[in-house]
Amino acid sequence: MSKNSKRFFEDNFFVIDSCNLDNVESRMYGYAILDNEILINSHECNFPFPKDSYGCYVNVVRRDKEIEVYQDYFGSYGLYIYNQDGYFAISNSFLYLVNFLKTRKELSFDISYAKAFISAPQASLAYQDTMIKEIIMLPRNRSVI
């Protein structure tokens, strides 16, 4: 992976896991349109803004002993969570999360989810299902604290 590729992923995607909560910093991924400015991949966004703000973003806000992760109203990125046996990991990218977990946790392929793609015109998927049984997609109006 080139330095530019690695930098792109670091600038746009994250994984927060329950073993490294002390290292989590406030950060906004994507872009948010506020009253008088547009924030893009902001390291200085350590404040919550209205959750119905327009844009395509995931905002991670750290306050004392609390971390809140929320996304834009339309859930443009999506938030994916793994939660098993007291351990959790959350990411704004399904593939980034799978890549992070693949050497740390046992993951199982959801064949019934994958089969739905064969007959896509006749199938409907539950909003939270993913190709990995242990990972779900959170609804767009949910935040994680």
Topology at a glance:
Blueprint: H1 3-12, E1 15-17, E2 27-33, E3 38-40, E4 54-63, E5 66-71, E6 80-84, E7 87-91, H2 94-101, H3 111-115, E8 135-137
Antiparallel strand pairs: 1-7, 2-3, 2-4, 4-5, 6-7, 6-8
Could you tell me the number of beta strands?
Answer: 8
- SSE string, helix = H, strand = E? HEEEEEEEHHE
Largest sheet strand order: 1-7-6-8
What share of the residues lie within helices? 10-25%
**What's the end-to-end separation, in Å?**
33 Å
Average pLDDT score: 84
Give the overall shape, derived from the CA principal axes.
globular
Q: Unreliable runs, pLDDT <50, ≥5 residues?
A: none
Query: Tally the helices: what do you get?
Result: 3
Cα-atom radius of gyration: 16 Å
The main pleated sheet reads as: 4 strands, antiparallel
Structural class: alpha+beta
The percentage of residues in β strands lies in 25-35%
Characterization of the model:
Helix content is 16%, strand content 29%. The protein contains 3 helices and 8 strands. The chain has a 4-stranded antiparallel β-sheet, with helices on one face. A 4-stranded antiparallel β-sheet has the order 3-2-4-5, with no helix packed on it. It is globular, with a radius of gyration of 16 Å. The relative contact order is 0.17.
